[in-house]
Amino acid sequence: MSAVALQRVAVRMLFDAAFADAVYRDADAALAGVPLTAAERGWLRRPDRRAWGADPLRRWRALTGLLEEYPVTGALVHRRHGDLATLDAFFSSPAFHACIQSRGSLALCFGDFAAGHADPRARAAARLERAVARVRRPRPAAGELVAAAEGVTVPAGALAMYEALAPRVPGVEAVVDPRALPPALPSIGPGEEHLVAERTPDGGVGLGEASAPLVALLEAAREGARREDLLALARRHGCDAGEDAEVVDGLIEEGLLRRS
To answer: Would the pTM of this model clear 0.85, i.e. be above it?
Structure first.
């Protein structure tokens, strides 16, 4: 019995009515690639189809929880459209379904989804808030060094915009308050800036300026690069032999990298 896969499909059906309809219409096609037996696919279609939609507020509650970590993104989307429909669409997206079926982090998958929004300010805010959310969720080491911070590259002025707007959206209630954001929003771009999200002494997460090489080193460490790979990357970004080790060891001393 594929109990875990079955449970994850059930979650997907509870959140996405179109997907539930597809399972009832043709389970083999809708669940292609999911390791379920024919009997298990039949179990999913045994209840009355209406049972999967018995909780009409399920998506809204889940979105509310996500917006606790993405308040500025949500406020900017609400400002542009007058609602949050484009963010609610996450629960019907391939990104959501892949996240649930692979047991990914819903908050991080949501951040990736929101970072594709049409509004450039919302995209930038989503990238910043995702970086903060990522630091809050350290993952097991993939290599000998672990990134304890998150580098992010965004349009120039994004950090100033975020710092100006974040205090105006202290909670989810403010996300949908049309008075929360100022009439004239801060501008961003052209150009780009490199930032880092890292733990603060009080246990929170802060955003600060960084460099392109630092962002590249943190990303490589996130992907499981070995120390020798990081040294080579530092050299490609201009470090001389000997300086590369100083840079990597300095990041360890600063707490931006840690040994696994």
So the answer is: yes
